[in-house]
Amino acid sequence: xxxxxxxxxxxxxxxxxxxxxxxxxxxxxxxxxxxxxxxxxxxxxxxxxxxxxxxxxxxxxxxxxxxxxxxxxxxxxxxxxxxxxxxx
Length: 88
What we know:
Helices cover 57% and strands 5% of the residues.
């Protein structure tokens, strides 16, 4: 999966589950902090991780599920696409 495809998948998930069509408007900067800007709560991150694992057939390394790796679109893209993961 390419970065642009994963980005669209995440934006669609955000629209469907949290922002009801406003995710693209809210996501004006792919480097912005989602926690600091109210895009997702910590519970929302857990739900997103579970969604990505299910959709991509991966088990993401729990030790690497940190704010440094997941608090923003570019961080998520870089981490998910860069991690080999374990097939589910």
